[in-house]
Protein 1
Amino acid sequence: MDEFDQLLIKTIDRTLKYTLGDRNTLIIYDYLEKSGCPVQEIPLKLDLFSAKLRDLLGTSRGQILGAPTILEDTIIEALAQELGLTPEKGVVFRDRIRRMKERYDSQRSKESKAQKL
């Protein structure tokens, strides 16, 4: 697991705990684990993570309308801030994260080359 993936997991953890509390975060992690998406594999299974958030927090009776999207947006914004990047715009969580990773990797590569000079 690379540095970006570790930061993504930390950001998801902080965001879930801050917005939903420790107990609910553990419930989500347990649900993800049982659904084939353990926390450490979230960076590899972004679509499944997003789908399972929607299963848990979706739009059926008694659930908060738009909660999964709000959480994903919050994760994107927090991760961008952590990385010193502008948050990615778009609809699909997976695509936004992947574009941020590409930008982060490119930035790190440029920094590495500059240090060698």
Note: The chain has a mean pLDDT of 91.
Protein 2
Amino acid sequence: MKTIMKLSLISGLLASGIVLADSHSDAYQKHASSSCHHGAGKSMEGKKAFWDKMAERLQLTTEQRASIGAVMEKSRPQTAAIREKIRTNRRELRELARNAQIDDRRVQELARERGNLVTELVTKRTKTRHAINQILTDAQQEQMKQMREKNRHHGKG
């Protein structure tokens, strides 16, 4: 009886350890991205509401809203494609970790690929942010900066 209880306890601990250790599981990623400060996991409605709120706070003109919308519309498919490649890369790494034997060469290839993809995504996002900043007035840029700082101090970034 004691042996069965010990085996059950050990099995439970191992199973929970595996779930907790896999921080790249789909459930974890869904939860983590949904609370991400830049809206990576938000629905299109949530992103629209966020930008509408920002436009109001910054008192954007109709022309500014249209220009920023065009910038974002242009960047959306590019960043979406990169994010999909990152997801595929993550799945491949996860599968390699589950194999009986580790393929060090393939892990290194995927790690380099992931680094390149993240670099590409950060570059595109920075260029998009820069293009949006060019549309804003100096006062609006300062207000945006203050809002970002305020969010950072509240643990949102």
Note: The helical segments are 2-21, 26-34, 44-58, 62-98, 104-135, 138-153.
Protein 3
Amino acid sequence: MSRKTRTSYLMRRAQLFVYANLSECLRKHKLTPMQYMLLSLSRRRGQMSSADLARRFMVTPQSVNELIATLQRKRLIARTRSSENRRVLRISVTPDGSRLLRTCDREVDAMEKGLFGCLKPPALKALRNALATLVAASENPLAVQNTPPDRRAPPALLAGRRDWMSVRTATRLRTSRRRQRKQRRD
């Protein structure tokens, strides 16, 4: 009897494949994939705290602090005290970090084009939607519950940023519509 390969196994194999290629792509710049992602996220999201980054990467604050310390020694990021809370240090990308990030982005774009070139544009879009839905579910399970499959990945998530207010609003709207339908039936 033949069994289907587990989805989790296929995802792990794909993740290892992508990670290995990303590591190779970044090696000449002396960056790890996690350091690259931290720099990239810091650029897109503006000043973030190490706690924000730890939640985003689903790792301990200590792990993020080690990454930050390494990037700070390389002068790729800077830490400044938050004006709202003096105990919070905000991380921002330095001009050197921005230059390196632009160079790495071009190389990662070329690497991804090669890796995902076997997928036609509609298949790549479907893959991105499915992955974005999984990420959204891991961050906020209520955001994808009872949502039609073709509408599950929020556009804000596909653009690489979380928009919790729109997720909360969408969840409330769905709940409100369900109540209205139920009241009409009763």
Note: The domain at 7-118 is CATH 1.10.10.10 (Arc Repressor Mutant, subunit A).
Protein 4
Amino acid sequence: MYSCIIVDDEEESIQQIEDYIPYIPSLHLERSYLDPVKAIKGLYKLEKPVDFLFIDVVMPVISGLTLAKLIAHKVNYLVIVTAHAKYAYESWEVNAVQFIHKPYNFTRFQRAVTSIFDKLAIEKPSMMMKMSPQNMRRKKVFLDDIIAIEAADHYVKMHTTKGMIMRKYKLSDVEQELAGFYNFQRASRFFIVNTRHIEAMDQFVLHLSKCMKVAYTDAYRDDFKHYRFGF
């Protein structure tokens, strides 16, 4: 998991990122700061650098750009999040790896973070699936390739970008293996979907990659509220 800290003088802006982070696999929120001065003190106390710092630019007492220079040694990947597009060039001067212009939605936030992972060539998360209950041999499946996982009697069908994998598993066992990867969400009793592959959605159906459609039920509707707002 990659640690994250948010610094912004607006509670609404902090809340937006706090709501989004759990839906990005491998990210974990450590703390948020409304006061940039307290943020500097907190960052200086860190024993090791925080992985991701999401920071606003225009704040009282000290700007986000100045703050970024002061704590550069305590941050691995700096992400500027601001309503002022004019600061884009200066963001690169303080070695920001991404610039997110307010207002933005979850889709834009996810794209920015994913692009950082791609640039840094971070090992893609994967799971090892047993070939069969009797066979101890396992097959590596990259999580980003999984579109949806479907329960089919005593089997699961794993729909991926490279085809379909069918194994003798319980859907609940697969769900347990995916615990912590918040981009995998239950859509119904029979389906788990990878939210990265949601291309569109209407009142009852998720439209996924490879023209796949999955109905989602009322019991899980709230889990997809951020994605509804993103389209």
Note: The two ends are 28 Å apart (CA to CA).
